[in-house]
Amino acid sequence: MEQPGLDLFQNHYLKGSFVQEIYYNEENQYGVFLLRVMEATEDLDTDEVTVVGRMMRPHPDETVICYGEWKEHPRYGKQYHAEMVKKELPRSREAVTKYLASGLFPGVGKKTAEKIVEHLGPDALTKAADDPGLLAEVPGLTDARAQTIAESLREHHSLEQALVYLYQFGMGPATALKVVQAFKGATLEVVKNNPYRMIDEVEGVGFRRADEIARQTGMALDAPERFQAAALYALQEASLSHGHVYVSEAELMGGIEPLLAPDGEACFPAEKRKILLMKMAEEERLIEDHGNYYLPSLFWAEHGLAMRVREILERSVEPTPAHELFKAVGDVEEKLKVAYAERQREAMTTAVDSSFMILTGGPGTGKTTVIRGICHLFAHLEECSIDPGDYENTENPFPIRLVAPTGRAAKRMSEATGMPATTIHRLLGWRGDFFERDADHPIEGSLLIVDEVSMLDVWLANQLIRAVPKGMKVVLVGDDDQLPSVGPGKVLHHLLQVKEIPRVELTDIYRQEGGSSIIHLAHALKKGEVPTDLTEPKPDRRFFPCQRNQALSIILQTYRNAMDRGYTLFDVQVMAPMYKGPAGVNGINEALQQEVNPPKDGKREISWGETIFRQGDKVLQLSNHPEHPVYNGDMGHVSALEPDARQDDPVLWVQFDRQEVPYKRSQLNQLSLAYACSVHKAQGSEFEIVIFPLLMSYRRMLQRNLIYTGITRAKSYLILCGETDALALGVKSRDKEVRNSQLTDLIEMEW
Ligand SMILES: Nc1ncnc2c1ncn2[C@@H]1O[C@H](COP(=O)(O)OP(=O)(O)OP(=O)(O)O)[C@@H](O)[C@H]1O
């Protein structure tokens, strides 16, 4: 949340000098310091206080003014929470000497610092920053050294000035610090000349904030930069919030209009807009293609993906003689002790006889069983081993690559097939900002099977398919009725529109021999129907009708019942369509944490923003961890905590399935509590028991594929609670499912 600007804090402050750093995190500029107070707006009974907050890293003896308030910490007692910290340049001889010798200025030790102060007096800092030539007059300082000192002085000075400048626009300290971090010495110049650059480079600055600053710095309403920033912002919004790969000109204008209102029309008439868009296209800041507008990265990803799919489709595969295939399938059935149904056999034979195929089907239709069959059939026909042990200590790569977008889905695949499976990111050697595997360094093996393909966005799909080597067959597996990817595109859906791609759809339900009422409910909802027996208790599902204000207590009660029956935290998952509100993910997490893992003497905890992580808490990894193989959507529990750890030491450990991962304080933003999570975060996972509130207050988010995805996460028991109308409304709603993409046409066109 944006913090209020300088003026609001003026009436309460502490002024003093920092005497000791207790903790400082360079990444988010959060620090804890001991301050010797020189001046305060109230009487204090001590002259040394602990100050916490975000600030440019102070150094010993630096004079600062902290604006904020007192808070009582359960463990550390009374602390001053600074909303904003302003630095003052030191003024006394002694303080200036210490400042110069503090290590901030390369090559300046105590002796040199003393010489500078002796020569320029206590105003040495301002004098030298204004006129670097003066430093060169200090005896013993070479010109080069004088120059370096002046430059770092000016930089420190200008960062402080830049912060104060940003505060004037009502920008909160957290965002202001990020701006300064992004542009360093050039901050003032950027903000004055083109504040719109902040949108791309500073997280938390959107078009409106940048536009407000542009108004206050006197930038013209019809400045080209304004229109161009609005166009890029509208394009990003279209892809990140609505999943479009491109927008038509009319859609683009529709996105831009509210950003420029009310003076958009007057400042940017149609002709001028056209010229500005053309200029952006020339500069490759966006791509125009047949009247459609793309972000460049999306244009190249979609075209790259289409081209490679086309190329794989065109690879010829020698068909296996029918009798041989028939016998091989029989051998596999015997080996696996499964009598495959006709359609399942067709899926297996299509997979081994095609260069590219898609296998689809709803829950319980046997997709995983068929994946296992495909692997064995492939190995049988290719006469290769699929025993991982046979590949240990050899140069030969394992012939089959099984991958899924999430760690949990990969784990399920591995358990079901008895073969290694990994996340796509791991297979592609993701290194935080790039993938090691690409067209020049392809993955190894002869068959690639990708599960949960509905979760793949255009960027990741392109990255994966471009790393497929010549000769490798590709089988994509997924359920097109599930939620589409969080990122742009609807890859599985659009691939299914390509008539040439061989595909098999499984429709018969096998799970629990078709007796599962969860699966039947899922298949009914998929068709937009709400079964008449929805609220009747079933052996594997219940619907508790309730009002919004009763939902939370039903969730707590059912969760508690499940725990009492011996289910673990990881067997039971609450899912909600929204984060906010009393029955939103955040509220449910707080209440469940209190219910199943309350504070206790001796139980350690650590707070991070609004969240408290406590020993034993169930937690969710929110992004792919760059250092450890843990991925977005992985769940674990807090196994250890060291809240007093020094900077750069881990403060919290999470035990995931196979490993314990340490987190530094600065990495805690990768975690959230996981008693409840959004349906998107649960995609690709299954749980014994799912508790899913459905309320009219979620109306905006309720969509057929969201409800369908949520309830199909339940393996053994599904508990729905809320309003039946909300479910009925949700399954009728499919508006948000349309996503602009050219993928189908691009694959089908002649290359
Ligand atoms: N031909 C078959 N004969 C008997 N049982 C089968 C057959 N095919 C699948 N099954 C059984 O049906 C159940 C569901 O199969 P599977 O897990 O492969 O489906 P799925 O489509 O992957 O489902 P989900 O997506 O819900 O995990 C499993 O218990 C499996 O053993």
Automatic annotation (TrEMBL):
As one GO molecular function, the record gives: single-stranded DNA helicase activity
Q: Which HAMAP family match?
A: RecD2
* Positions of ATP binding: G364, T365, G366, K367, T368
Top-level EC class: isomerase
Similarity annotation: Belongs to the RecD family. RecD2 subfamily.
Q: What is this protein called?
A: ATP-dependent RecD2 DNA helicase
Source domain of life is Bacteria
> What residues does the Helix-hairpin-helix DNA-binding motif class domain cover?
98-119, 133-152, 197-216
Task: Quote the cellular component terms of the Gene Ontology held in the record.
Answer: exodeoxyribonuclease V complex
Biological source species: Marininema halotolerans
SMART domains xrefs: HhH1
Gene encoding this chain? recD2
